[in-house]
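Sat 14:20. Reprocessing the chain from the morning session after the first attempt stalled halfway. Input below, unchanged.
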Amino acid sequence: MRCGDYSYNASEFICCDNYELCQKDTQKVRLKHKCCGKHCYSVGSSICCGNRVTDKCHPYMAACCGYRCYKSDEEICCNLKIIPKCSELHSACCGDECYDTTRMCCTRSIIHPCYHSSYV
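Finished this time. Tokens:
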């Protein structure tokens, strides 16, 4: 098989967008590599956000917000903005703000008290 100008063994490598070779996880190699667009990266230390490799911001709770990494146990991504979570378990986005879904509602990017028919 070929990857760009290089010949490679498909049982040992994967080709990232016909540009860079990435070693597969085998019994000999336990590094866990993946393709991110045309580049190979180590999933232990990096994350692929929007086809760009970036350093992991947290070993287990790393997530992407556009091209940036954020800590998903502490933060939330709202309209490509990383902001602190406002509730441990019930955070959600309303526009680019965080709100607690157990206390408030969101309509057209406006946070407001929820009105339920059972209260009327």
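The chain has no helices and 16 strands.
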